Amino acid sequence: MCAMQVTDTGRDAGTDTSGGAATIGPCAGIPAEHLDVVRQVLDRVGDKWSLLVIVVLEAGPLRYTDLQRQVPGISQRMLSLTLRQLQQDGLITRTAYAEVPPRVEYALTPLGRGLHQIVTPLIGWATEHHDEIRAHRAIQTTTTAP
Prior knowledge:
alpha+beta; globular; two-stranded antiparallel ribbon; single chain
């Protein structure tokens, strides 16, 4: 999304040469000064783990170990990194309680709940079309194998 096309002359097609913003297409409505942040957010929510964490947290606040149990395959390092990044973006909160033993819970913010509403249909689509996508991948693998 919002990638610039290079023409034969070497200039970006569809960009405003004064600011680098797209002048046509789906990115035309995004101000040039917002593009970096938009791309960073899309990278974040499009990574391997962020959406799964967002979906799991929709049920309510969870502790780290509960999150790790509910997101199969995620390592401790990746869960810690993902939680830190989601917190930096304001999608989740981290609440530490002054108890013995210490207790920390993670929860969705209103911003995170808004994202959840958007990605739930995407996850449903991926689940619904799982078999079809795997079949296409298998065909591609067998036709491109040496």
